[in-house]
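Input set for joint prediction.
Command: fold jointly, output tokens.
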Amino acid sequence: MSAALQLDDLAVRFGGVQAVAGVSFAVDEGDFVGLIGPNGAGKTTLIKIVAGLQRPDRGRVTLGGVDVTGDATAARVRRGLSLTHQIVRPFRAMTVLDNVVLGAGIGRTANPFRAMLHVERRRESERAAEILGRVGLAGTERKLAGSLPLGQMKRLELARALAVEPDVILLDEPLAGLNQTEASRQVETISDVHKGGITVILIEHNLEEVMRICRRLIVLNNGLVIGDGEPRQVMADPAVHEAYVGSGMATHAQA
Amino acid sequence: MYYIDLAVTGISFGCMYAVMSVGLTLVYGLLRILHVAHAAVFALGAYVTVLVANASGSIALGFLASIAVTPLFGMAIYRLLYEPLLKYRPDVPMIASVGLLVLMQDAFRILFGEQGVTFHRNAFSFTTFNFAGITVSAIQVAIVVTAAVVFTGLHLFTTRTRIGVGWRATVSKPQIAASFGVDPIKVRYLNFAIGSALAAVAGGLVALLNNLVDPTIGFVVSYKALAIIVLGGLGSVRGTLVASLVLGLVESYGTIFIGAWLDRDAIAFLALILLLMIRPQGFTGARAA
Amino acid sequence: MSAYEVSIISIVGINVILAVSLNMISGFCGQVSLGHGAFFGAGAYAAALAMVATASVPLALVAALVTGSLLGIVVGFASLRVRSDFLAVTTIGVNFLFTGFVRKQAWLGGEMGISGIPATGLGASGNMIMILLFAALTIALSFHVSRSWMGFAFRAVGEDEGAAATLGINAGAYKLAAFGIGTALAGLAGGLYTFFTQFITADAFDFIFSVMLMAMVVIGGIGSTAGVVVAAIGLTLLPEAIRFVNNYRLLVYGGLLVLVIRLAPGGLAALARSVVIRVRGT
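tokens >
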């Protein structure tokens, strides 16, 4: 059985810097992976490669057994990938509900001319409302997405990513900018998403929360994987400790 | 000899385009707005030069007047039209700018007539020099000299003076203006003022060259200037100079080969589109002044 | 109905088709196109050639629609490669290339254009009715697209292509579709124009005309079919209603464009909406 997501020897260099220097790992179906590393480790670049926003100089990305290395983002989403952005990108001029309905309508929008033939949205609206309820945004449906506070926007971002019914979901710093309460709430929701059977890959700086929920931790530094395994073990690894302390970041994992 | 004459024409037009286009590239570099109405500033400069020269009998006074007036006009465009629109995507101020150009053009037509205005006395129009068998008109010389002075001056200003260095840095990276002790708002006004004054000079020179200013004068150059700044790398003064000279020469020589197929004026756009298809990010791509 | 009235209504109908089709490209899908005149012109010339050769109205209409659309799809492909601010300049360039090319081609009539184009046989009133029918169809199509999933996807692509991609929307395909449909309609309008005037020159399809079309879209309210229709009708009739405006046509169009963007960027449609909201007391 093939992995839900497989990365083989991915590397990319730009601006004179080797951002990703040969990364390989496989994520199984149902995994809950936390991707961490100091600033500049290459996490965001790696995620961009997986999402199709950055072309690698070499290597392969395989999604559910299918090689998607040459595919654009939209094509990857149709194959089961989904992602949220670190800096949220809602469709501000649309309502909260419509943002999610569009995602739920992924089956309708594959082909522009077929899309032109369909007007009916009842099913997608119902699904969207249900998803909004799950992420805690019930009641905001009619509001313009641009008018939401950050915490709610982050939840909308997640709702939209869920609407496309993904197999694998990439979350790029979903807790950034949230206060303690909001962050905990968001973590619970993400945990529920995972329990629903979706493979989750999470990039986060907030190590406490990451350690709590992830089943597997992958540590990146200087574009390479320097740790991969059970969170507590990985954090106890001196090489990982060195990478963090060396860049001036304290870790909570000494306990 | 013919080919050298074409080169002379091409270079002098190129120099004129360059002086005119600097303002456009500076505004784009700073605000990401395609300041299409810059052509109206150019036209205004041309009109003022002629009208004041006719009224006072001195062409020099005409130039001075236009250099005094156009920066005010340019800065007013920024303050009244662009500044309130900065919150929208860049297409919005651009369309407004196009509207302003069309409006101004018609205003010039209504105010000064469809036929345009001419110098009462243009002492230079027939003066020519002869360099080793090549005939060059005095105005062509003036244009090239002006361009040389302008670009050397800009270069020195942005590398040797404190204000200039700060200005250059701000145009490249508006967000670091504060650390240079430069007020970003003042930089914007400075951009519009300098760019507009230069456009006025270019306009005056074209007026001398053709001995005529008509309502469409800005129009013809405006879209060429757009093509130039895109090809030269938006925000790059050096790129603008290179692209301008290249365009001037291509137009000059191009009419021989392509003239049967295409209007001379359309050549600029053909070049632009072809080059954008090959290199969608523009020519030099660098944003440094 | 006098000949003058028939003539005015015909022009209004053609401008409505042009403005509504431009709104689909620039309003629904957010792709700034300042060269719509070129597609109008391409259709007009195609229809002219077809009529001169065969005097067949259906053939001329199909030729007009297809030619407009083919040119539009080529430009659409260009839009995929080029950043959005360059797109505007590219479309201006396309317009100038079109007029520059046509003016130099003897087989297209050069500077003199094509004259003596055979009549459709429907008479002026018949032509007018045909134009109005197509205008109605265009409006209906525009409303339908807006309500459909295509319109939904267009709005997403117009606002943020990258975010649209994360919902599986292939922005490139939609941009091509927008250009293809919008320019096909513009080409169609060109054919209708040829039937109406029986004489065409490149001057009718220049950049200034494209700016006027964009003015109609902006003043009507970018993205609003109803608003754009009202603006197209109003702006076409204005120089007729107020005689002296005819001499100041560009001044008025340019001035209105600047004023609307500056003071009421949502155009008439937004103004109408805010009036409705105030009346409802929400």
